Amino acid sequence: MSLQELKCFDYILIERPRISARRVSAHYVLGVDGEELSYRLIHTYPERIPKVEAFAKLMSIVPAINYGLFTPEIRFEFSLDPRDLEFFSDMMETTARDIFVNRIANPTEFIRPEFVPREVHPAMARPMANLVPEGVEEEEIHFKPDYSRCAVMLSGGKESLLTYGLMKELGCEVYPFFYNESGAHWHVAIPAYRWFRENEPNTRRVWGNADRLYTFIERNMRILRGVGKRKSEVYPIRLFFFEGYAFAFLPLIYKYGIGNLLFGNEYDDPRGYEPFHGIEHYNATYDQSQDFERYMTEWFGKRNLRIRQWSAVRPLTGLIVERILHNRYPHLFRLQRSCHSVHKEGDDYLPCGTCFKCNGILTFLLANGINPRFIGYKDWHIVTLPKRIRKGLVRLDRDELEHSLYLIKRNLPNFPLEGKPHWHVEMVHFDDKSSRLDNIPPEFREGLYSIFEEYTRGYAYLTGNGWIRITRREAVEGALQEGEKGGATAH
Fold this sequence. Notes:
The chain is built from 16 helices and 16 strands. By secondary structure, the protein is an alpha/beta fold. Helix 2 (82-105) links the parallel strand 5 (73-80) and strand 6. Helix 3 crosses helix 9 (318-328), helix 9 (318-328) crosses helix 11 (356-367) and helix 11 packs across helix 14.
């Protein structure tokens, strides 16, 4: 297979976005075998928004970032600021590598077998698309961020709910932002959204049809099959979409002067990562990585917005996230729905109890001695969990899974699976790749770590393939002391 064989479109064209008091929209046009197919991307707002054209362009172009491998040209029927064009190009390059490695060379069920390459070389992961804006000219934005204000992107999952609880407790002015992308994932967020709508005046929801746009594009990709028909725990081809949700809120971030943009991205153990045939990638999670957050904070700086994008739960494993959420913020814990296939029962939306996400959540809950029935799981979900874990239907870091099973066995002696203790899983984690010491802004470290300490066993830093204990002072100051990299081992 050559790179050219992945071509699905003659071009992708994005028309100039239209902005009104409560809506932003832009047409996507696909050139396919001499025909043009069109779909309009829409965002609507619950209140009047400032008409900043650069924001409208940014939220409109993000979906196209996913398709640089599949079209020789992406046209923008408008001018772009050079910094926005650089952002698009950088994201397209990285996303193309992630898609090639994690969706095509290691195919999902959506890839037609004849398009799976038999041989792989790095050039195959480079996008073929040339970027063709109508012009390149600077569009200045004047913005003064208030760093006491935090936007939290809420999905209804445990990490974003905990992030809200933490930042609220620290005294920030928190804006819970919900994005309804017109897909099934919105059902996951509905229980949380209903509570926030009634109890948190700063709650905002933006409606968009991004999910339908992605489905429209991917249904017209000849390398894919079953788009929109198969139930799956992964999307057919797209991997870059979270920043599209965040950009949809740029008008509100601008309107309210918000200086921090937080996603609930937990710790991801970097050990075991290897490039794939010389291709660097992010295991399909680039837009949830620390590298991405740092890129965005730097880019917002270049763009004169100076928004800081980061995660308050970056040093925590999922096991600890669940522990803090349940014990410190039980009213938020009960809103949690972390599931790929929630379903409606009465007026509520409940987890399926058997998908990869549910299996991970059930494992964490049992390991922490928390009753899974509190958030909608049923007895048979619990009873059959060991069988699914044996089949490998859980996506947790190895140490995190083994340690969780060890804790479950300690809580429930009749549980049929054995685990192994890795006590670092219950510590606050740092390393250069996934959780840098300076990742959290300095003014929030003392408060956050004081809370974390109540539920963890100290601080750990990854050096090579092993963990060492570090001090609270080093964590708060954001730097290791000289000669401390050979400190006590944390197992």
